[in-house]
Structures are given as C-alpha cells and as structure tokens.
Amino acid sequence: MDRSRGEGDSEMEPAHSSAYQRLVAAAAGLKVPDAVRKVATASPKDPEPGQIWRAVWEHTIQLLVITAVGDDTVQTVPLSLEQYADADTLLLPAGASTLEQPLALWWGLKGPLPWHVLERQISELTMPLPASNGPNLPQELPSGAQWGSPAPSPAAAALEYRGLLADQMAALSTARWAPQGSGGLPQLLRKHAVTVQQLAGHLQLPPPQALDVWRGQHPLTAEQAQQLAAVLGLSADDVLAANPALPPPVVHELSRPPRRTQVRALAAQLSEDEQQARLRAAYGIFTLAARQDDRTHPDWVARTDHYFELHLGQ
Length: 314
Hints:
The protein is of the alpha+beta class and 314 residues long. Helix content is 41%, strand content 15%. Strands 1, 2, 3, 4, 5, 6, 7 and 8 form an eight-stranded antiparallel sheet that branches.
C-alpha cells in the first residue's frame, strides 16, 4: 500500500503525499482481527482468487485483491483502507472481508502482476467479486457494494492517491528477476581462447562437466560465474547472462510465494539481496538437474527442495 524503505522505517520519502501519510496514520490505529492474524502468520501458500495479498518488490509495497490466477501472472485489483475513491473504485462494506474494515477496490487500475511480487496473504473476501471480463465496469454488484463518486476537481486528494496507486502497480507489473540467458557462453569462451582443460582448472571441474559447460550444455552457478569473470576480465553478470536460459519451470518454482521465505533466508545467510539470492538458487537448481543422468524429465520441485535442504537445512 506504500512505497517505503521498510516496514519498520517511519521516515517518509519526499515523494509521499499527504494522502499517503494520512493512510499510514489510519492503518496504524487499526485493530488486527484474529482471522487476519491467523492467515498472516501461516506458512505462505500459492494465491487463489478472492484472497487479499501484500505485494512487495524492492521499495514498493501494495495491498491487492486476487481476481484470477494464471501460470505466470495473477490478475489483481489494488486495494486501500482509505476513504479516497473515484468513479471506478468499488467500495465494499466492513463485512466484505476478514479485515473487518471498509475497503476501496480501485477497479480502474486492475491488471496482471507476476507471481514473484506476491509476499504474503493477509486476508480474504467473504463475498464474491463481480464478474468482469472486459474494460467496462461490472453492472451487477454484491449486496452492500457501490461505486465511488467522480473526483470534484483535478486537484482532489482522491486523484493524487490514485496516481500513487497507479505508480505502484506500474512498478510491480514490470518487476523481473530471471535473466533471458543468451546461451552464448561457448562463443564467449572461444573468444577469450579458453580451452576445456583451462576451464576445468579455473573452476575445478571434472573434465566431462567442463566439456558440457564449454559446449553450453551445462550452466554456470553464480559462484563459478564470479570466478570465471575474474579470468575473462568481465563482470559476473555478463558471464551469467551468457548462460543457457533458465527453464521456465525453475523460474515459476522460485516465483511462488512459499519459496520466497526460503530465498530470503538464503539471502540473509549470504548477506545478499533477495534478487541475488534468487538468481543464485535458480542456477544452483539448474546445475543440479544438469548433473543427473536423465536430463529430459527433471523433477524441478524435488530439485528445488533438495537445493534448499543443502543450503538451509530445510
């Protein structure tokens, strides 16, 4: 719901509006219902329609209602506990969710977001959302719900607040962590005249595995990319970018909310940020699969579990 330096940081950035400050002050005085506390402290699960989630990416934090769930994205509507609304905002009564507070669903800002921005479910709706398959506003509303009113002027606080939410949604919708992977590692090694034998020596790899890396059939881990980057006079990011592309199932698995807790634990253990740790885990899982005899049908969930068992003991 805000764009802050952290949940416990009370210092406001200059870009924050007075509307935002009033929102924070109002939220600080809310009593947390038992149903919300129970959901928020439970182990994270995959999202489902009708749930209220907190999305977090870098300095952006936003409350959302999940309206539909796809393979790589979730359809969402930004939500606030504020009194602000516009003509495209669906106002729900306090009994519409386990938050037990009147809610404003900014229907005009609905859109898809990637799975990996979802941090934790905090509540759920207790009434069905209206059906909406197109750009037009739904005509049939649940009992007690109503549309907001148009802003009285361009300078109205509601429009200022809507602009903040639009910025939040734009930042979340463009959040990415998985590199495309050019697959150009063989060309990069040949350009710098690195032989299979030299590669095995630099990375302390068995010759067969070094040959697979040299041919682009086996990815480098983050640690190996850093070692090789020092030899080639490049950055570790440049070397990683030449890796084969990460398999979509690995990207999806590490984008799931239950994995985010493990990624953060790994980041804390290695004193890295979350994105570095997620990328490290992705290539580690990829290399685990590449080492197995059957490379055609890897069990990515089991490989991911095994990776975190090795590094976190969980």
